[in-house]
Amino acid sequence: MDRLTNTIRPYAWGSTTAIAELIGAEPSGEPQAEMWMGAHPGAPSRTERGALNEVIDADPERELGTAAAAKFGPRLPFLLKILAAGAPLSLQVHPDLAQAKAGYADEENRGVPVDAPHRNYKDANHKPELICALTPFDGLCGFRPPAETADLLEALEVDSLKPYVDLLRAQPEEAALREVLTAVLTADPEQMAETVTEVTAAAQRLGGAYEPYAGIARHYPGDPGVIAAMLLNHVRLQPGEALFLGAGVPHAYLDGLGVEIMANSDNVLRCGLTPKHVDVPELLRIVRFESTDPGVLRPEASPDGEQVYDTPIDEFRLSRFVLPEGTAPHDLTAATPQILLCTAGSVRAGGLTLTPGQSAFVPAGEKAEVSGGGTVFRATVVA
What are the phi and psi torsion angles at 151 (to 5°)? Predict the structure, then answer.
């Protein structure tokens, strides 16, 4: 079992206090957005044996196990993070696996540099993800029914929203959502900025269900993503609750601290709330224009005390143990690779003591027991 030393990414939307409070450190005053745990080449965790990606590259079958290496290739197929949102992230969607492969191949064939700001597909993989709240956590997830959005927009009493309201009420669901999102993202920027200013003032006045969108507008004044965000369900997770974000589902995280796990990919199509490139035609090809229930997940407890967050993909499996002090050790030995992350208290993992924010990599087949008084998340794969 290897103790991990992890990189904290200082993205502008990160909280200046949440990660520091979790790990018991003094805030630096700078945003701390994500702590990465895994073998992603952008910021691989380090072990006493070297960078985790290099450790795995040296002997994939030993580190990952024969079944996982055969199924996912010679790399760790997930990335685990602590995510701390102090401001809204960009409104975004992720492609499915077929779309990612096709999009990556197309951009490679056209010679688009992989680091070009207008490039959509950095790799040929999909990016399903799961966020589990450690604190109350606000986000947007999936389209709400068009009639509900029409009511929400109409109550703002902003004249320039009336065409959107009419579309949402007159068209079938898929056509209504597609036409309104297209109209918002292709509108004249100056006229849209005026609309967003009026919407912001009305949302601040009305409060209640409008407050999340007023908060977004304070961070992104004049951004068409503010109107796009109002097409989506607002969700507040309580600690221990989670959201699964599948392909084509528009979403954004707004505020809070959580544990995030995702397939090892950088493929993001943005819809707004960002200064980065928004490829509207490609975005419209990827988005699934259907209303959805956000589907808040609560863990399913097994007889041994493991609480599992059930998801429909195999690249990752996330669970947690809430361990009362003095309980018997739990044997987590598995034929798949694992990362263990402590988020509360103090736990023993093999010969290591883990406190909040500390983590360990367990190679496939290595003996792994956890005990102590605290909470530990377990990330692995289904192979």
Answer: -60, -40
Q: pTM for the complete prediction?
A: 0.95
- Contact (Cβ atoms closer than 8 angstroms) between residue 319 and residue 309: yes
Active-site hit among 3, 75, 144, 270: 270
Q: CA–CA separation, 368 vs 338, rounded Å?
A: 9
Q: Is 270 a catalytic residue?
A: yes
Model pLDDT for residues 207-266, shown as the tens digit of each residue: 999 999 999 999 999 999 999 999 999 999 999 999 999 999 999 999 999 999 999 999
Distances from the Cα of 195 to the Cα of 94, 148, 218, angstroms = 28, 20, 14
